[in-house]
Design a protein that fits this description.
- The protein is of the alpha+beta class and 160 residues long.
- The chain has a single domain (10-158), classed as Thiol Ester Dehydrase, Chain A (Roll), CATH 3.10.129.10.
- It has helices at 37-56, 140-158, and strands at 10-11, 18-23, 59-70, 79-89, 93-103, 110-123, 134-135.
- It has a five-stranded antiparallel sheet. It has a two-stranded parallel ribbon with strand order 1-7.
- A hairpin with a 3-residue loop joins β4 and β5.
- The longest helix is centred in the first third of the chain and has 20 residues, at 37-56.
- It is elongated.
- The mean pLDDT is 93.
Length: 160
């Protein structure tokens, strides 16, 4: 059970937004030179962890990954840019939306390769859930994602 406190701090999503960049090396790919899905999910999880920890100001652990959508392949030599943003915080958990973009070096063509929603839980020094700051969306898009995050959480809980 999450520790109770008088934690009332609030933060805008922009304060914890994370951008991470990788290059696809041969050891990141399958025999066809295509980025392995598991490697990409690892990178997405890392970016989401950094984002959640910046928001929570605590160590955070992955609670769930859902809506992972592989949209296009990336290949050896492509530059991968991963963007992670908190869409909503709850008591001790946060929903993080992550997108991955690939860029072809020679043409500079950039395209979306993946989107996913992660749920992270902030933990204290004893690995117990701990309260996180309230998310204060500022843009219309952030406010919309904030509302939709509540619906996604209800759907996740219902499917348990």
């Amino acid at each position: 059970m999450a520790k109770q406190s008088n934690f009332k701090k609030s933060k805008a999503p922009k304060l914890s937004e994370t951008t991470m960049t990788q290059i696809v090396f041969p050891n990141d790919t399958n025999p066809m030179g295509i980025l392995q899905g598991g490697r990409l999910v690892h990178w997405l999880d890392t970016a989401a962890a950094i984002c959640s920890q910046n928001h929570a100001e605590h160590i955070c652990v992955t609670a769930s990954i859902d809506s992972v959508k592989f949209k296009a392949p990336a290949k050896v030599g492509d530059i991968i840019t991963i963007k992670a943003k908190v869409t909503r915080s709850f008591h001790s958990s946060m929903e993080i939306f992550v997108q991955a973009w690939a860029k072809k070096v020679l043409t500079q063509k950039e395209y979306l390769i993946n989107e996913a929603f992660f749920t992270f839980v902030a933990i204290d020094d004893y690995a117990n859930p701990t309260e996180v700051p309230v998310l204060k969306p500022t843009t219309d898009a952030e406010k919309q994602e904030y509302e939709l995050a509540d619906e996604r959480k209800k759907a996740r809980l219902k499917s348990k």
